[in-house]
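Retry 2 of 3 after timeout on previous attempt. Resubmitting structure tokens to design endpoint.
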């Protein structure tokens, strides 16, 4: 298996995903929220590129079966049921429902990855489950970062680096310079992050990954909106109740928990 990283959907070379597996990541916050929603009982998540499209899809589902969720520039969309905060997607809100979702970056990155044979959604919260799903994969793997409004994002690069580093440990090859760059980024910080995960820090100390996720433009924007809990939720590596593999099913297009 060869693992490549694409720092933005717009930077994916034409035809590169064909015949491969895409892992779409938008740490702050769409991929984290999608994992939470499915882990809390949503039967499916339908990604939409535009607000009007999402409303139309939701209206076409049986009455009472749909949740409209998402954001624009980080803020909830008027008339939608929920925003893009992982904590909003509780078992009571999600159980048995279809989430119809549109976000500024994440759902668009998903829709830009459809030429891949398989499309997965990755986050720090389901990192172990995602790696396990890919561990015996023979097709090329492409990590697709959503970015922040058309710009490369620090938080997505860190998760892409964690994935790249893990697969190098498993003796898989890296397929492009971007994969090497983000792997080096992650390896600069992983010792501090894993040490905290293994041993904990001082009482009241903020986990290191939370501090790192706040550094980028996406993290700063989330903090400006007063949504610090969302950063903490996104930084919960291998959260036990989020160990699901999220895969895109087709006809109709929807994200589901893979068997």
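Retry 2 succeeded. Sequence:
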């Amino acid at each position: 298996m060869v693992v490549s990283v694409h720092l933005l959907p717009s930077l994916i070379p034409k035809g590169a995903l064909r015949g491969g597996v895409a892992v779409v990541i938008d740490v702050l916050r769409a991929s984290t929220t999608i994992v939470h929603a499915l882990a809390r009982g949503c039967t499916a998540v339908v990604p939409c590129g535009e607000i009007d499209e999402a409303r139309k899809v939701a209206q076409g589902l049986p009455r009472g079966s749909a949740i409209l969720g998402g954001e624009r520039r980080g803020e909830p969309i008027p008339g939608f049921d929920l925003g893009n905060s992982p904590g909003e997607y509780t078992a009571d809100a999600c159980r048995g429902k279809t989430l119809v979702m549109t976000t500024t970056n994440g759902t668009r990155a998903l829709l830009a990855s459809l030429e891949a044979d398989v499309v997965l959604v990755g986050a720090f919260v389901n990192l172990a489950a995602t790696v396990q799903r890919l561990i015996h994969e023979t097709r090329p793997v492409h990590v697709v970062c959503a970015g922040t409004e058309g710009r490369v994002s620090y938080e997505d690069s860190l998760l892409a680096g964690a994935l790249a580093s893990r697969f190098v440990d498993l003796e898989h090859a890296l397929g492009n310079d971007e994969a090497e760059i983000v792997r080096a980024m992650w390896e600069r910080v992983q010792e501090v992050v894993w040490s905290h995960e293994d041993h904990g820090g001082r009482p009241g100390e903020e986990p290191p990954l939370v501090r790192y996720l706040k550094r980028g433009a996406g993290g700063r924007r989330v903090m400006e909106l007063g949504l610090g809990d969302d950063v903490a939720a996104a930084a919960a590596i291998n959260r036990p109740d989020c160990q699901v593999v999220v895969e895109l099913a087709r006809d109709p297009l929807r994200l589901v928990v893979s068997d």
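Attempt log closed. DSSP finds ten helices and eleven strands in the chain.
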